[in-house]
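Re-run with default settings, no changes from the original entry. Doing this only to confirm the output is reproducible before filing.
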Amino acid sequence: MTTGQGHPVSGRPGALPWRHVLTLPAMGSAVRMARETTELVLAEWGVSRRHPTVQHAALLSPTVTVIYAAGPDTFAFAVHDRHPYHPQLFSAISSTGSGGLGTVMELTLGLGGTAVVRSDADGQGKSIWITLPL
């Protein structure tokens, strides 16, 4: 696991001043570590733990990178992997068995947030960006 601050955010929320980057191995415990790190980062930035706010791909991507960015009234995070599959974010809400992505999308939209999938330059990976108002 690697973690750090001051990482340049690739692909938008460019104006958000706070950054934290976490890279994890693609294994079951990564989800727990990402959630725990998210809680710690939010607390460090003064965002309440009760403020609602991650999930992943697998075999083709040996690591998952979570990027956190925030400003005074916005929290954004991205989950990046090198798996070529690009999920249809909005169909995940109505799909049965969509799992965590459907839940994330419902929460995002319910909180007035936005979601977008951004492809890597080589088309072999992607980042799913979630931006929420605080």
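Strands lie at 2-5, 18-25, 63-71, 74-81, 114-119, 126-133. DSSP finds three helices and six strands in the chain.
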